[in-house]
Design goal:
InterPro entries: LRR_dom_sf. With 428 residues, the chain is an alpha/beta fold. The chain is built from 14 helices and 13 strands.
Length: 428
């Protein structure tokens, strides 16, 4: 084999599977027939109008992904261009703002193997959700990325998604019509974002728990949720829950649970939690003690904008990764109460609330002597070549050697043996 273009389809497929940019795949498809046959299904795997991360203003219907897709599908059928319908290659589809509901109907009828779907069409009705369920039986991840105002029976069609594992819903007003429908779904991951809910959970509206749920993300007032959990005969709503994220931003910039001790019974009844993120929650002494004693499997802890933390009295023996954003922690406490840390991430947000010996204020040698980890300032990562070889993992080499936010997130999730003191510009 003298040239890559002479390689079998199987070899080309392995090569092109490592091409990350859609524009590069377009160029590969133009090389010859073999490259086209290999690159084309990959291009249709996650069809996009522009490269990921590029902003595009939708001014006309023809500028939307659904309109372009339904045109392409029609042309392919008209000219018999492919033995395999183009829509059968689609695995991920993001139907963002500006798309027409009629165009969505056409596309949904032609992408039976799609697995991830993001919808941002406010005109969507319950019958449309049911149509998606009937036509896309392989769907595993579904996101309603628009402000949904509750309507009775709107989410009842969720029961038709037999393979659905992940659900992300953005609700305005209150979640009551949604919650009962969730008990029919054997979800593994649930993200619930609620704006303006001031009601109270009760037996008639609450979904009662999901036995298969492993990841729960709540961006909503959670005080009533935790208080409601205490009234149930069994407080273990999610027996296999391993990842919990709580985040809430109020009108004043910080949301605090008035009775945050109500979290303690929830932690006691969900001891399998390994990853915990608490954002904009004022942590009491009881909660801090519960994190150390009840969550015996906790390995990753993120504290985000929690103001001053209470004194530590118990050790976090299993925590390996600690993230601090807008929350202060004294370096001595970190060394004493987190004996097994393998990675620390701190955004260097200076605050009058921080102590003089807060870890974010210390220099590299002092941090290394206390934590026994390698100090790494954010300025160390300026390009792909600046990343140490053992941290690159599966990082793609992008045009110009640049690093994206996604690349930095990957490093944070996989790095070990580091203390990363970051500038707020890079913070999540």
């Amino acid at each position: 084999m003298s040239r890559l273009g002479d390689a079998p389809i199987e070899v080309l497929s392995l090569v092109l599977n490592n091409v990350y940019q859609q524009s590069d795949l377009y160029q590969c498809a133009l090389v010859n027939k073999s490259f086209y046959a290999t690159a084309n299904p990959l291009l249709w795997r996650e069809p996009q109008l522009v490269a990921s991360g590029t902003k595009r203003k939708v001014t006309e219907r023809k500028d939307t992904i659904c309109f372009r897709l339904q045109q392409s599908l029609r042309q392919a059928d008209k000219h018999c261009l492919h033995s395999t319908p183009l829509g059968h290659h689609v695995r991920k589809l993001n139907v963002s703002y500006g798309n027409c509901l009629h165009d969505l109907h056409t596309v949904i009828n032609n992408v039976p193997l799609v697995k991830e779907l993001v919808i941002d069409i406010k005109q969507l009705q319950d019958k449309d959700i049911e149509q998606i369920a009937l036509n896309c039986r392989q769907l595993k991840c579904l996101s309603f990325n628009f402000y949904y105002k509750p309507r009775d029976r709107y989410f009842e069609p969720l029961k038709h998604f037999t393979n659905l594992c992940e659900l992300d819903v953005l609700v305005i007003d209150n979640p009551e019509p949604l919650l009962p429908s969730l008990q029919h779904c054997l979800l593994e991951k649930l993200k619930l974002r609620v704006l303006g809910f001031g009601g109270v959970y009760n037996n008639a509206t609450f979904f009662g728990g999901i036995p298969t749920l492993t990841h729960l993300e709540l961006e909503c007032p959670v005080r009533d949720f935790f208080q409601y959990c205490q009234t149930l005969p069994s407080r273990t709503l999610f027996p296999v829950l391993t990842d919990l994220r709580i985040a809430r931003r109020g009108t004043s910039g910080t949301y605090e649970i008035d009775d945050n001790d109500a979290m303690v019974p929830f932690f006691k009844s969900h001891p399998l939690i390994r990853t915990l993120s608490l954002g904009n929650v004022k942590i009491s002494q009881a909660v801090m003690t519960s994190l150390a004693t009840d969550l015996i499997h906790l390995q990753r802890l993120s504290l985000i904008k929690n103001q001053l933390l209470p004194p530590f009295t118990k050790s976090f023996h299993r925590v390996e990764k600690l993230t601090l954003r807008g929350s202060g922690m004294m370096a001595q406490d970190m060394a004493m109460y987190f004996p097994n840390l393998q990675y620390i991430y701190v955004d260097k947000t200076l605050s009058a609330l921080q102590h003089a010996d807060d870890i974010s204020r210390m220099d590299g040698p002092t941090i290394e002597s206390l934590t026994k980890l390698t100090y790494l300032p954010s300025a160390s990562f300026t390009s792909y070549d600046s990343v140490p070889q053992d941290l690159k993992g599966h990082l793609p080499r992008r045009m110009g050697g640049r690093l994206t936010k996604k690349d930095l997130d990957h490093i944070r999730n996989t790095a070990l043996g580091l203390v990363w003191i970051d500038h707020p510009l890079w913070s999540l």
